Fold each of these.
Amino acid sequence: VSLAACAPPENLAADGSKIVVGFSQVGAESGWRTANTVSIHDAALDAGIKLRFSDAQGKQANQITAIRSFIKQRVDVIAFSPVVETGWDEVLTEARQAGIPVILTDRAIRTTSKDLYTTFIGSDFVKEGTLVGEWLVDYYASRPGTVRVVELRGTTGSAPATDRAAGFRAAIKGEPRFQIVASRTGDFTRPKGEAVMRAILKTDRDIDVVFAHNDDMGLGAAKALEAAGLQPGRDVRIVSIDAVRDGMKALAEGRFTFIAECSPLLGPQLMDLVNKIANGQPVPPRIVTQETTFTQEQAKAALPDRKY
Ligand code: AHR
């Protein structure tokens, strides 16, 4: 009998049973999140992996409950996209004690020991913020004067909000004419992005740029600007992160000015990792998602083929 014949068939656990993965999702706060959830469901189906999916509705407590329930159910692998960065040590120690490997997807955590999870697949959020900042510095190089920036931040304490803010600040650091005149959280949602922007516009209409940590908040801000009689793309430039369909449409139409991509299509790579880990194969500790950036012209060209 050859060694290959002894190897477990693809996408089954080492004991020959169907692989079960428990996945705890952040919620449904944005177009990005919806596309991410669809990608995970589709990929599990394609890979023949049984998915137990739990929506935390934006609450860390719900994620901790879901992870404990996955441990009780003795799933083969636990994967989750953490709402916030801190507060995971206890529940992940429980998973480790139960011998269940954990994969972080999309967002990082801060933990006292790195061996509480096997691998982390997701974007480089610092780079995304940096790309937006660098593009703005370049864009304004031929436009003199102060650049007044409003920042709409993602969920407080989440890795993308912290890292995008840091990357953006690093990129504009050497340019004192860039002034962040307001920085408030819109929790990655369209309604909150709109509400925060409306509130800011009550006291300050002298805004050059809105840097939204995701497309949805940028779209909410666009609505608020329009309601205040300001034209996004002409009076105020909206730059954001994600490149979901609605954001790309706004960019192609000239309402947005620039987007750094954050890919939600993590499903296939995640299921590949689940399969390998369930079969005791080695995986790299960090997998960084491949991404690009879009100007208005590039959005027009990319939009017809955009999948999400
Ligand atoms: O963690 C990824 C971020 O979360 C996306 O940029 C945002 O749209 C989502 O809500």
Amino acid sequence: RVKAKWAATRPKFPATGLALQNFDMNYGTQLGELWPSVRVSMLSEQKYGALVNNFAAPEVMRDLEMQGARDFVYIDVSSGEESGTAQEHSQGLPSSVLTSSETLEDTVRPALSPNIKCFLFPRGDISRFRPARPDSCGTLGYYLLDAASVLPVLALDVQEGHTVLDLCAAPGGKTLALLQTLAIRRLAVNDASVSRTARLRRVLQSYVPKELWTEDRVRITSFDGRKWGELERDTFDRVLVDVPCTTDRHSLLEEDNNIFKRIRTKERQKLPLLQTQLLLAGIQAARPGGDVVYSTCTLSQLQNECVVEHAVHLAQEEMGITVHVQDLGPLTRLFRDTFRFAPSIRLGELVLPHLTANFGPIYLCKLHRVS
Ligand code: SAM
């Protein structure tokens, strides 16, 4: 009998298999009866959203509509009008998000950063977007990303004239979403990895005209984000801390750069510490009265709620900084027809992948710095 030849090229214990074992053990307990459906969704093809680039020619929205997609952020089902700003739409909640006993007065409409538009194919429709084409100036019309990763940016609620820090920014999907608000006075974009920062620059070059990201408006750095609190504290109106994590979907599907490789065990075990340090630096960098959003793309409680709890405790005890966790219920109620949110989260919100809405996992938690 001829022995299978693949042994030399295929690892004995593929990292993807180790990830699945780990998730079955941990998420089976954490999510209980929800885990089988989340598991099969994460092993299936993910669904993308098209983040509209306001710096490209406006025809892009028509192009996306022609493909059969709709903006999930400001869709106005009652009038069928084209998407508008948050202010225009604050009068008109999509009727589909209200239960029969609810009225508009019963629901608190969250403040949403205007101008962010993200198109999706309908629930259950697994069509793929065509790759974005450059307009006559060479600017790409949309950026494909996990639509749930727009939620941390929406939760940040950037307003006119704000200064914003994006602490772990590469490859730049959320940076691009932040810039779509057209409201930021000064944006600090950082990522510890020099090569990934270079990739982020290439993304910005393809989507944002150079004159709009001059040094005085957009500063790109490659510092260790953990040190940011020592460099520039009490400064920013808004801080996004989108930390490195076990990137659960990637870990299940790709051997390349997989954090479940045996050789990376220590790095993986240290993630919650790194995440806590990054969140603490983000809290320090925010001004009193400012807001911080912490986000990950893992289901892990240890990397999500536990990190937030630990950082809030340490901020108070070791830095004398009081932060309050904000209720994101109004935001999730608004988008509950688009995403499946985990039903019982202690702190923050978690988008659970589902076969008919295969986004996430994305965890987000918003903190308000009081002092
Ligand atoms: N926000 C990005 C986006 O939306 O495209 C994704 C960020 S990714 C989840 C996490 C990033 O954190 C990686 O690019 C990684 O290089 C960066 N990172 C890891 N350790 C860091 C540190 N100590 N300081 C700053 N960035 C770090």
